[in-house]
Design a protein that fits this description.
Elements: H1 3-7, E1 10-12, E2 14-19, E3 43-44, E4 54-62, E5 70-73, E6 95-100, E7 113-114, E8 116-121, H2 125-152, H3 157-167, H4 174-185, H5 189-202, H6 208-214, E9 217-225, H7 244-251, E10 271-275, E11 280-287, E12 292-300, E13 305-310, E14 326-330, E15 335-339, E16 357-361, E17 366-371, E18 382-384, E19 387-391, E20 396-400, E21 403-405, E22 420-424, E23 429-434, E24 455-457, E25 462-464, E26 466-469, E27 474-477, E28 491-492, E29 495-499, E30 504-508, E31 511-518, E32 530-537, E33 540-545, E34 550-556, E35 575-579, E36 584-590, E37 602-612, H8 616-642
Length: 649
Amino acid sequence: MNTDDISQPTILRYQVAECSSYSAGYRPDLIMEDRPAEQASRWSSASNDTQQYLTLRLEQPALICSEIELRLTCSTYNLWKVPQEPREPDTTIPAQFVKIAPLAAWGNSFNYSIWYVELRGVTGPSVAEVQQKWTIHLDYESWRLCLQFLREKPGMEEAFAALQSRTGVKLEDPLVSQLFDCVVKRGAFTDAESLLAQGYQEDSTLFEDYIRDHVPYQPQWSRLDHGVMNSNGNPSQDSSGGTIEENSRSFGPRSTNTPAHTHPAVRGGHQMVWDPVGRSIYLFGGWDGHRDLGDFWRYNVATAEWSCLSEDARREGGPGPRSCHKMVLHTALRRLYVFGRYVDTETRASTALTSEFFYYDLERHTWTSLGEDVHPMGGPGLIYDHQMAIDEDRNIIYVFGGRLISHSHVGNNETLYSGLYSYDITGNRWRLVRSDQEIVPGSTTIKSRIGHSMIFNPTTRQLDFYVYDVDRNTVVEMVKETNKLGGPDAGFTQRSTLDVAHQELFLFSGLMREKSGSAFTGPTTNNGQVNQPIESARNSFWLYNLRQREWIRLYSNEANPENEDTEPCPRFAHQLVYDPESRTHYLFGGNPGESSNPRRRLGDFWQLYLHRRRRPADILRRSIFLLRRQQFFEMCYARRDSTPASPSM
């Protein structure tokens, strides 16, 4: 079908076909009028039980591609959700009826209310085309079920063969059909074993899908060095025997490429990127608890060694010391892009708050400035705690969110956030793609924010986890609260990575917000204590399967000094990168969030290897065992049935 039709939905006309109940004059047909200022212009249910619903009937069948085309303007006193998962355009089913069911109300004494419902979708020839594909799919599944039924019935072999020949329907994978013939029809277990062994020998990925869907990952942490701070926050010794601070002073003047020590110092708010070509990690900047850092490092995975590329990149034409910035790597161009920085509130009045943009050439080992201030060029102003992602196929960098810093806001408490921008590498052009004030028809509004994570998926050409389609300029909110679907809680400075080949998204949580007793005003608990949200560093590691749309928690930890050599302590403002070839994550530094020592930062370096306990060879061995066990059972049953009965005494 024409995908342009999907990206340009129109408003759909409808009538209220049915409702569970309504109270007083709050009739269901009032949701068709958009009058938010009138309290009576809404539907309100007669009760707040889980049986309440509205059913809408469209004037003609239409494609409602996802929940973004169904917009509810609801009372601030009532919470509503539409229980409809987003669908891909090629799996969308034409519909003429839409049922809206509430999941939760504001409280036990409130009924459900809806002020206005606007449906957006596609009508016309596209609907008939999708309907035809859906009909073909139903026919195919019907024939397949008939074939399955006939094959299981004795004496229906000819009917099975005739139907399969006439329809051309593939019941299952040919290997499964051959195994069925060996085991069920002929009882040839030895032949079945040979089939499995031969199939595995010819295709080593034979059991990969089964392993991916049924065998969970086992996380394994390994500490690559012991950082530059011990557990009590004091400087540890480097390879020369003295502390880092002592040896740094003893070196005296040195060139910018002469490192003071053999690995990066403690820091948080730094940036790291993974280079799959050089199999290396690049680290730049951060805050060590006292000052911003401008050193630039490379970690070689093959040699397990850090090398300092520059102690101060500014001296070589690069960015100055900074933290809360972002970096992305263009693998093909061999360029590392750096954008954004945090400026302390005490120094903003005397600092040039310009939005600098740099890249580092990994082959020539040189820095290049792409603009001392990209804001006049159509780019964002000076921002920090934003996110960047890169589309290498089209040479586009996306920058989203972050908090704006400008002289016009120095001294006041106003907080401004940046929108979604794109940077065309080829044309050296910035463009504002979306702002909080812009409303895109048929698309969810994505609010600007800080401390989030963002990834570009080159397979689907989307930015996850709000899914932003970069080609259609549409946004789908995958789920409003992931923790209600078995996923992670809301957090700050979460780090995420993507395995493109397996379509698996990994998330390492950071700063979490919890409720705890507090002396400040706020909602009270049953025992009279005040519930006040507090923030704490609490880490957990999650997997989101993009194919199955399922969250799985792989790892979680709590602060425990006894485990500091076997797993990283809880932290935030850390950095995490991923090597998909070895399925290994690398974690460096961060802020442990110690209230007694708020300036403390970490310098430990960890790797997290994800492995599965069962390999394809293990699945083959298990399959052969199951075949032999079944053969043994059948031999026992056959012997029992053939043994003559004992003569009666």
